[in-house]
Amino acid sequence: MPFSVKHRPLRLWRTLLPWLVGALPMVCGLLIMHWQAGRELQNRSEASAQRVGGQIERILDSASRAASELLPLAGQPCVEEKLALRDQVTRRAFVRSTNLEYRGELYCNSLFGPYSEPVNVDDYVQGKLWLMDGNSVTPGHPLLVYRVSEGERGAITTVDGDHLIGALYLLGTDNQLILQVGQNWIDRSGQVHKGLAPTSEVAASEYVSTRYPFSIHSGYTQGKVGEQMRSEYPALFGLLVMLGAMAAVTCYWQLRRASSPRVELQRAIEANEFIPYFQPVVRHGDYRWAGVEVLMRWQHPREGLVRPDLFIPYAEHSGQIVPMTRQLMARTVEVLAPHAERMADGFHIGINITADHCQDLALLDDCHAFLAAFPKGRVRLTLELTERKLIAPSEVTHALFAGLHDLGVMIAVDDFGTGQSSLAYLRQFQVDYLKIDQSFVAMIGGDALSLHILDSIIELSSKLGLGIVAEGVETEAQRDYLARHNVDFQQGYLFARPMSAEAFIQALEAQGLASASDHQVLIQGG
Ligand code: G
Ligand code: G
Ligand code: MN
User: Fold this and answer.
1) Which residues form the EAL domain (predicted)?
2) In whole angstroms, what is the distance from residue 225 CA to residue 39 CA?
3) What share of the chain has pLDDT > 90, as a percent?
4) Numbers of helices and strands, H then E, in the chain
5) What is the model's pLDDT at position 513?
6) Pocket residue to mutate for ligand 2, from 277, 278, 279, most atoms within 8 A of Cβ
């Protein structure tokens, strides 16, 4: 089992990781969506600059044709040509007025006829195009002026600003569109501004006409990408949230699976994975079952059956041994109580407890509940306290052991001889049995000195008036030696290994039958 020490930063990391993993697909998805929306806007911006540019070129074509047709007339007397000027205004859709220029002077106008105004070529970009914010006829109203010239002659046509504004409105209003002519520009408001048009913050693009000296700038205001994402990808966004949540939950479960021992034990407690195994204890003389020791096993979903020495130490350390033992006692009741009639009165049931159990009186309730599940007097509950970890006496332990005594619960000191419990200790906790540790039983057949230790323990306990249980009996020689020394009970592989509940119940039934037939043999024999 991968038990490891838990570090604080690790715990923080474990808490954060599912959030990070959940956020990752959302962040990546949002980045991709952002990029995609930006690209779409860029394409749209370029397309609209191009289309609007095309429309303005068409408008200028009309102005340019009119001017080209009038150019040969420049220099002729105005009275003769003014009808030709008006003819062009009428014929050309976008032309508002036409003019003739000769030697730097605009001398003939389609509206006024003869006229006089100097022509400043510098007003015109490349001598051709001028975006002006009004003239004497319509002051404050934008006007696009087209000029064609040849030597001293020139023809000038004007386009009403409304046609330009119309072109800028051509594709709707969700984007920014600006017509730039030289140092002047105009947007949908119809106001002519001086200088260079401001570039859009999002998806700025430019269409530079190859036929006339103007350009179209298009783009979007700040926040357009977000708006685009919200309006175009709500379903995709929902999917991202779902993916993120799924990733986070999966990560969370994966982390839990390979989590710390405490979390793993807690999970096992909740899943009821701690089950009782049973090892019989036999009586001196006929070696019939006098009782049983309940040994905890962990039925792990992946590791299989886990031995207690692998997890009990940690459970004791973390304090989780208390709820685990409570669960074990409850399971033991479930298994054994229905078969109580198979047990002789005073059948011992040994439960291992630790010092942790003695810090409050909860154990009293557990024992009370345990005994209440059996017919009165049928079982003797024995709590086995390991001698390796001594209990510190206090008011609570005093009350606890007095209460246990009143309930008729017996106390056994487990692994006796391996620790250093004093006589005072044995008396303090009103001990009833000593369980001689199997290392001493293993000395039988060894050298004389070792055997002497075993003999001393047996002698001591009989002098103290305590019952003795010998653990780890594996050979007949050991069994017989212990029998000769009047050890009350024996436990070990020689008689039975720890077994599952089903096996134990089966064996218990077989025992009952076996003892009945023994009895018959005795009667028949007698
Ligand atoms: O069952 P096994 O046979 O492997 O026992 C190994 C050790 O685990 C023994 O020292 C035994 O006392 C201890 N042990 C077994 N079951 C429990 C239990 O329910 N509680 C405690 N505290 N120790 C147990
Ligand atoms: O609670 P206690 O420390 O007494 O636990 C008994 C332990 O001894 C358990 O691990 C149990 O499986 C083991 N055990 C029981 N009988 C024998 C035996 O005959 N030989 C050996 N080696 N171990 C035994
Ligand atoms: Mn034990």
Assistant:
1) 258-512
2) 10
3) 70
4) 15, 20
5) 52
6) 279
Does an H or E element contain 179, and which? strand 176-181
**Residue of minimum CA distance from atom 13 in ligand 2:** 472
Q: Flag whether pLDDT at 404 surpasses 50.
A: yes
Task: For residue 128, give the amino acid letter.
Answer: K
Confidence of residue 67 (pLDDT cuts 50, 70, 90): very high
215-220: strand order across its sheet: 192-194, 184-186, 176-181, 215-220, 202-208
- Ramachandran angles phi, psi of 412, nearest 5°: -120, 140
Q: Are 326 and 21 in contact (CB under 8 A)?
A: no
**How remote is the CA of residue 361 from the centroid of ligand 1, in Å?**
22
Distances (CA, A) of 87 to 66, 98, 319: 9, 9, 106
**What token pair was written down for 132?**
């002006």
Query: Considering only the top CATH level, what class is 50-220?
Result: alpha beta
The structural domains of the chain, with segments of one domain joined by +, span 50-220, 262-431+496-525
Region label for 126, one of left (φ > 0), alpha (ψ between -120 and 50) or beta (otherwise): left
Specify the CATH number of the domain 262-431+496-525. 3.20.20.450
Per-residue confidence at 401, pLDDT binned at 50, 70, 90? very high
